[in-house]
Amino acid sequence: MLADRGAEGAVVQGLRAGLHLPATQLRKLVAFIGTALPFWRDDDLRRPETAEDALSDQLCDFLNDVARNSPGLDAFKFQRETRDDSKGGRNLDIAAKPSGCSIWIGDRHYSPYDIFLPIECKRLPTPAAKKRDPREYLFSSSSSTGGVQRFKSGAHAANHGFAAMIGYVQDQDIPHWQQELGKWIDELSTSAAPLWSANDRLELERHDKGGRQAIFNSNHARANGLSDIAMSHLWIEM
């Protein structure tokens, strides 16, 4: 069924063999999600949507279908609006969890009830509305809704050293938003130092031939004595 939907090409090397190896497995899971994004976007069965929640619902369904039919990736399930495992009053947009197995990364154990990879999703640009900060992918001056800000402050994934952001690019293109985020980070380095600095800039890891899908990496210092967090940023032009 998935092959008929064009999703077969989204499958990358499985994770089953070597699940007990170091945290490179987290990045392999990120690579799987990044490769799947264009197949999800172009799926003929997908109803066009623009709202963040609707897009994330669709993406979660698609990732579960593809993972279930991919040897190795069937060790994972994707859940929407999952209760954060360190901040009970907050929900993660998407959480990847072990499915029917346990996973060890270093000395940390993940059961099917544990969040393996916390994921936050944001639209680019931020929808225009009262009390919405255009920089919301990174930071919000009027609320705690800033995407990366939630991870830096410990509001999300305080007990995780790795997380991911998914950016739904709905206007302009990926190079435009990479440049915009660089400007915003420069501004925050002045107005919100020392939590923000030039070290928060996103570094390109890879993109597809058309430049409509890209993965960036970043490392972020965190507040309140929390250890730093590494992040992958997966962007898809809608």
What are the defining features of this structure?
238 residues; alpha+beta; seven-stranded mixed beta sheet; 4 helices; disordered N terminus
A few lines on this structure:
The protein is of the alpha+beta class and 238 residues long.
Task: Explain what this protein looks like in three dimensions.
This protein starts with 23 loop residues before the first helix and ends with a strand. Strands 1-2-5-6-9-8-7 form a seven-stranded mixed beta sheet. A two-stranded antiparallel sheet has the order 3-4. 25% of the residues lie in helices and 25% in strands. Helix 1 crosses helix 2 (52-68). It has four helices and nine strands. It has helices at residues 24-41, 52-68, 147-153, 174-191; strands at 76-83, 91-98, 103-105, 108-110, 117-124, 162-169, 203-207, 213-220, 229-237. The model is unreliable at 1-22 (pLDDT under 50). It is an alpha+beta fold. It is globular.
